[in-house]
Each structure stands twice: as C-alpha cells, then as structure tokens.
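BUG: 3D viewer hangs when loading the predicted structure for this chain

Environment: internal workstation, default settings.
Expected: structure renders.
Actual: progress bar stalls at 90%.

Input used:
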Amino acid sequence: MEKYELVEENIGDGRVAVVKLMRHRETKEHVAVKFMERGHKIHEMVAREIINHRSLRHPNIVKFKEVALTPTHLAIVMEYAAGGELFYHVLHQRRIAEDQARYFFQQLIAGVSYCHDMEICHRDLKLENTLLDGSPAHRLKICDFGYSKSCLNYSRTHSMVGTPAYIAPEIISGKDYDGKLADVWSCGVMLYTMLVGTLPFEDKNDRQNLRKMVQRISAVQYEFPHNVLSEGSKNLISRIFVANPSKRITMEEIKSHPWFLKNLPMELSEDAHYFYLNQENTKYCVQSIEEIMNIVNEAKTPPVASSPNL
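Structure tokens produced before the viewer hung:
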C-alpha cells in the first residue's frame, strides 16, 4: 500500500470493514480503500465479493482496482465516488422529484441488469449501497458486493441475506429463491423511497418495529400517498411489489415499461448495455484471479503485528 497516501481516515463503516479515502502518490487519483482485519474475518464471502466485483466493468458500478495486504489488514482498492450515498441525497431532499428519481432508477436498472447478464446477483441493493460520483451529471454507482452471488446456470439461492426493509417476501419464507427477481424487488423499494421519502413497508406509527415490517413485506402491505406519484410510476411499482416472484415484472420488462423509457439517456440504452456486456473486462484488471486468491488466502493468517497503522 506504499503507493497510496491517506487523505481521510474514515468515509464509511461496513459490517466488518472500514473505508478510507486515499490518494495514489503518482497519479494523484483518489480511491476508496476498504480495510478488513486479517485473520478469521477473511472467509469465503470475502473472496466471492472480490472475484464477483472484479468481473464487473460498467459506468454505474464502482470500479474494482486491486487488492493488497498490510501487516494487519486486507485492502480492497476501489473507485472513489465523491457524491456519497444516494441515501443521504434522498434524506436531505425528503423525497426526489419524479424526473430525477427516474434518472437515478434508470441508472440503477442499467447497472443491475448488467450484473444479472454477467450472472451476478447483488442481494443487498439499497440506497446506502448506491453512491453518486459528485459530478453535475449525478452518475449513480452501485457498490458493496459483500452479499453478491454468481447465479451461473440460474442456480437458486436460499440464504436469508440483505437488509430487512429491502428484502423480498420469498427471502423471508426461507425457501429457495431466484436472486435476480429478489434484486428486482429491492430496486422497487429504492424507487418507492426516492419518490415518497419513506420506506414502503415500515409501519409509519412504529418505524423501529422490525417484526411489523417483515409482516407487511410478506403481505405486500403498502400504500401510495395521495396525489404524489404519477400513474406510470405507480403502475411500475405495483408490478414490482408482487409476492409471487414468477408473476413479478422482470428486468427486461422494466426496461420496456413506458415510465422507465421516458427521457432515457442514450448512454443507458440497450445498445450501450450490449457494448458493456461485450467488452473484455479482464483487460482492465491489474491482477489475475490467481493473484487475488493468493493475497486473500494469505490474509487469512492473523495480523503479524499489533500496529494501529493501516
């Protein structure tokens, strides 16, 4: 990590990690570096997160750059998105104007659709895991692939992972589920929250009651506020919030929905989508999968020193 210098000590906390803002000493490029303590916290999910993230190269996904070791930590170097979490953008405005919410949603769907076509389900899509790049264009960037899973051969998954407010009913049931359709549900929660300013399934009179929220998700119990949303947005959301995943709107159907297509930028068109799918992602990676796995495996050994320096 000698080629990077510290800029800001803590720009984000995860489940088992801390994220620092650093700068490349030669290029002066700012990067976000996720530090995970070496030892037992480095397990299969960490390796999966890194390998899945490495395979993705899309303008609406935070770029993976490299992994490195310090005496005490495994470091994952990523693109820095200076605009911060979309969550705070929504929180600050209370709710977002429909045209801007649509633009964010269009970018979200572009990134998630690309992940799915690369056979990767995110499984923890939420406003906190989407960043803005800080440019006037407000480019959205999906991050945190810690719960992601390869869904090659359309294998189904059964792990109850994700954030309660955003998870689909089939995840709560504990049965096998299609990770792609569960991601679609989470995208719907994000869209509703951007447009309305509140989470769709929380009890407005008892917001901290997780049990009530889970019950409302299972029953698909939500409502649209009066005279706030357009009929087009309500139609799309109601087709996403369907308990039976086999009857839920698919990613391809979302991309052809009239509300979604309104003012769709060229860079988010299907032509652009196929361009990103067909590019050779591996040529952008400075490290091979073998090199990465060697580093991750070495990080499984406990810290060699108790130094507080990262």
